[in-house]
Amino acid sequence: MLLALGPPEGDLVAAAEKSCRSSVATYTVRLGWIFGRQGRSEAIDVLLQEPYCVFGAGYVPFEALTGRLDGLISQYMLIENYSAADWLSALPDCQS
Predict the structure, then answer these.
(1) Contact between 20 and 3 (Cβ < 8 Å)
(2) What is the Rg, in whole angstroms, of the alpha carbon atoms belonging to the chain?
(3) Separation between Cα atoms, residue 52 and residue 46, nearest integer Å
(4) pLDDT digits (tens, 9 = 90+) for 69-88
(5) Residue 53 burial class via C-beta count within 10 angstroms: exposed 0-12, middle 13-18, buried 19 and up
(6) Mean pLDDT across the stretch 17-34?
């Protein structure tokens, strides 16, 4: 969802409570439910603030991200979230 829709606007929890539509907020909160069942509900707090960090968890093979990651980095740059853009830019270096 993050790769398809780009960076979310505002508070993800509040956005998920307002709508059941497919969105980054909805899927982040749902991932939190899974984390809660696994006894690691605190892990979702990071993703609610920095959803792009999900790409560092290895759920999606890095090879599947490479063609789309530049677009997401560009979107973060446009909204001036340079810490997200820098983090995502460093991601390929971490995969080697």
Answers:
(1) no
(2) 13
(3) 10
(4) 899 999 999 999 999 999 99
(5) middle
(6) 77
